[in-house]
Amino acid sequence: MTTRSSTTMRALRPDAAGDPADLRETVVDVPAIGADDVLVEVRAASINRSDMLACRGVLPGPFPRILGRDFAGVVIEGPESLVGTSVWGSGGGDLGLDRDGTYAQYLAVSRDALTALPQGLSFVDAAASALAFFTAAYALRLTGQIESGSTFIATGAAGGVGGAAAAIARGDGAHVVAVVRNDDEAALVREAGFDTVVIDGPDIATDIAEAVGTDGAAAAVDAVGGKLAGHLLRAMGQNGRYVLLSTPPDEVPSEVDLLDLYRKSLVVKGLYTGRVSAADAAEMLRELTPRIEDGSLPPVRVDRTYPLAEAATAFGTLGPNARGRAVLLPHGSESI
Questions:
Q1: How far apart (Å, rounded) are the C-alpha atoms in residues 142 and 145?
Q2: Which CATH superfamily is domain 133-273 in?
């Protein structure tokens, strides 16, 4: 059984908003746990774009605080029935945003924010996948039930959220149209078994329309936004459901044909995970466990792992050319 021998821990706890390149490991007290909490020894914690935005102060939250939204590890304090259990989870608007997060050796978290680690899923893969998986699952819930044989569009399909949304929809029997940025990403999604791939370019609107056919798409999860959103809405079929997960803040707004939206009775929703709780995330991850264990929902690709002391370098890997997630190992590589 894992135990701790110190009252302090290493963590990434900036005093104020700033550049992730300036992040430095610091020593803080191990958090105390409440009656409904457990203490998790964090074995792995992923770096996401939202963590960078939180560090910069773009996403609201108090400072000083420990950053980080994803985690995978082992319960070391709490109810006897949970101690020794391998768990994973992700914060919505709580962990790493309005309270201390996961970039630390230990995490105090509510029991309802935990999900047992699926069989065959490593700590590193779990941490890399948690936020992406629960976001995709929540988005699919917002689109409503996807009927077998219907057409589903996933943008950013080579990324974590878009790839997960595509995999979940395929598991539900949908014909998936995977939208990617370039040939390299197209090769990745084809390798993952998606045959209908649309590459962004000057003819993107026509290419998407041809891919979905005359009936249009029944649902779409858009992890890219921007000008692409208007093209997707025009490609939706009657009573289509579109969910937007992100959009560039400085891009020219998308043009939306309101008459087309009205005549098709389209449903358009936005999903901001900052309004979702870690308990909500845990519920989504529990629902996905069978898909993870049977291999139909593969983990998000990992580029490499880093110790906490190299967090600034790890954050530097974020960007459009990232080859996968960067994952922090608060206890070092020997812990995984």
A1: 9
A2: Medium-chain alcohol dehydrogenases, catalytic domain (3.90.180.10)
Compute φ and ψ for 195, nearest 5 degrees. Answer: -90, -30
pTM of the predicted structure, to 2 decimals: 0.92
Choose the weakest-confidence range: 43-47, 167-171, 273-277, 299-303.
273-277
- Tokens standing for residue 248: 């560039």
* CATH architecture, range 8-117+301-335: Alpha-Beta Complex (3.90)
Count of CA atoms in the C-beta half-sphere (13 A) of 147: 7
Count of beta carbons in the 10 Å neighbourhood of residue 97: 23
Tell me the per-residue pLDDT of 245-261, one tens digit each, with 9 for 90 and over.
988 877 767 788 899 99
DSSP label at residue 187:
H
Which residues have a Cβ under 8 Å from the Cβ of 233 and sit 6 or more positions away?
A: 242, 256, 257, 260, 261, 266, 268
Q: Using one digit for the tens of pLDDT, what is the confidence trace for 123-166?
A: 999 999 999 999 999 999 999 988 999 999 999 999 999 999 99
Angle at 13 between CA 10 and CA 15, to 5 degrees: 140
64 upstream amide cis, omega within 30 of 0: yes
